[in-house]
Amino acid sequence: MGLNDATLNIGADAIKAAITQVGLASGDPGSGGTNNATTAAKVAVAWSASAGGDFSSTADLDFTGGAAGGPATHVTLWAGSTYRGFKTLTGGQAFNAEGKYRIPAGQLVVNGSSTT
Fold this sequence. Notes:
Blueprint lengths: L4 H13 L3 E5 L17 E2 L10 E2 L4 E3 L10 E6 L2 E7 L12 E3 L5 E2 L6
Antiparallel strand pairs: 1-2, 1-5, 3-8, 4-7, 5-6
């Protein structure tokens, strides 16, 4: 038997509360989230309302301090220093010439069946 949307949203709301920051990695971040970490600082993340266990970032996620032209292939999920997991990025996967990288609002999506 599958879970209904209301139940999935309970789980999603708990997960959102446990992920308050995001960072970037230049490759697989590993089980602790620190492998391949970029020099860009983590940024705070705000989440949309849950719908069917899914939610997404509500504002642009602007990273600075990365290596100019360096890779950004994974977004890492954090609550302070506690690692929560990662998502593999798609699309443009490099910092710009100024060491900046943006994930547009709504583009970081976590769903009820998210893996990587």
